[in-house]
Give the backbone structure.
Amino acid sequence: MNYRRTLIFSLLAVLLLAACGGGASSGGGAQSGPGPADVARQFFEVAFSGEGDIAPLVCSAAADDVEAMREGLTQVAASGAEVDVSGLTFTEQNVSGDTAEVVVGGRIAITVAGTEQEMDFPEQTIPMRNENGWKVCA
């Protein structure tokens, strides 16, 4: 069972690195609606709940990676794992014009076969871009 949790956690880490690997995008937009931290939180919630679509939360530069992210998240769902991201924190930094970073850290809870395990989530900095609304940008 411990091997399965480790495998699921590793898959989650790979998916997040794919989604948040860094990079840039062109474009911009007026800053309205939810801020960068709110959108990053929404991305994590949608990604790991399986409810909703991550595509509208991803910037145009990372649009080609959305299908690969979906496939990985489908594998997590097929494993029967449930991921609770409510223990994560989302802190904005370096907000300037149409770019920002959100530092994500804290704890996640993974439930597999009725057994929950909380784990530290390695702190990650997620690049964000405002493209007529903030988006996760890889």
Observations:
- Residues 1-8, 17-31 have pLDDT under 50 and may be disordered.
